[in-house]
Design goal:
Blueprint: E1 3-21, E2 24-38, E3 43-48, H1 52-55, H2 59-63, H3 66-73, H4 81-88, H5 96-113, H6 118-121, E4 129-130, E5 133-135, H7 140-152, E6 157-161, H8 166-179, E7 184-188, H9 195-207, E8 212-216, H10 224-233, E9 238-240, H11 247-255, E10 261-264, H12 266-284, E11 287-290, H13 297-310, E12 315-316, H14 320-323, E13 332-335, E14 338-341
Parallel strand pairs: 5-6, 6-7, 7-8, 8-9, 9-10, 10-11, 11-12
Antiparallel strand pairs: 1-2, 2-3, 4-14, 13-14
Helix pairs in contact: 4-5, 5-12, 7-8, 8-9, 9-10, 11-12, 12-13
Bound molecules: magnesium ion.
Length: 344
Amino acid sequence: MKIKDLRFTEKKWDFVKPFHIANNVSTSKVNIEVELVLSDGTVGLGESSSSFRVNGESEAAIFQLQKEILEMIKDLDVRDYRKVFAKLDAYSRTAPSLKAAIQFATLHAFSRSISTPVYQILGGMKDFVETDKTVSIGSLEETVHDAKEIFDAGHKVIKMKVGEDVKSDVARVLAVNDEIKGVRYVIDANTGYTTKEALRFIDAMYRNDVPVGIFEQPVPAEDFEGLKIIRQGSMYPVGADESAKTKYDVMRLIKEGAVDYVNIKLMKSGLSDALAIVEMCNSAGIGLMIGCMSESGIGVSQSVHFAAGTGAFTYHDLDSHLLLKDVDPVGFRQEKDRQYPILF
Ligand SMILES: [Mg+2]
């Protein structure tokens, strides 16, 4: 089961509608599909969805790493996947999304060789996970329409993007909360607020009894002090996303008592750091959610297998394949909000 080759292919995906988060609008996304080939011809799949905004990655630059990485992992046996993971840890700072794709492709090749799905190699804690779906920033009418559609599709958690303007953000969430009963919200400001704005926003949620599960990344990634102040002033759990990329970031967040939740994304951390973050947060009593970053079918599959295998997450935000056009789930079955990982 030795690694012989590594192939990269660029794939472009269009969003169903422009995806608008705080200070950023996306209409399409270029990802890299990874094929890791073993000596017997078995192919393991992975997907890198790079992010300049979050990781400082450039898709064009990481595409050039194919030769260098193949040199490092060639002839390693995928049964010894921790050896491959360790080599790839060198790319935490430069190309975390590619690290994730190749680490998953390694497990996937191993999985195919032994006819056992990846989520069982990772521990098999759950047979399925339940994902939320995201409402991006838009007009009040659009927001209510999109949230209703998500509720009707069977999702029990709705993720709402905020972070550009407190007043209209509050109005949008309250309008949705008036229309829909029986759901919880993950509210994500994507670093868009100041500390004072975040406290104003979350106070409005509390006064209006909005069932907020997590208030995610209210302030800039580096502002651990702001997170801490908001955590102390908020009746709802506060989560880190952009602040929590590597296991070292999460160790600092825990030490500083800055958050109640961490949003793990394989595209920020790879599988190796994600595994470490799960254990650190479990030990520290910090809650976990898992998110995505414009991955298509294979990329979301990576996270579905990771989440089901470890069983570590309270919230699953694995909806990017639903936000992109013409994406079929690969490696999992989607039934309403449930995602069942399968051998693929
Ligand atoms: Mg987020």
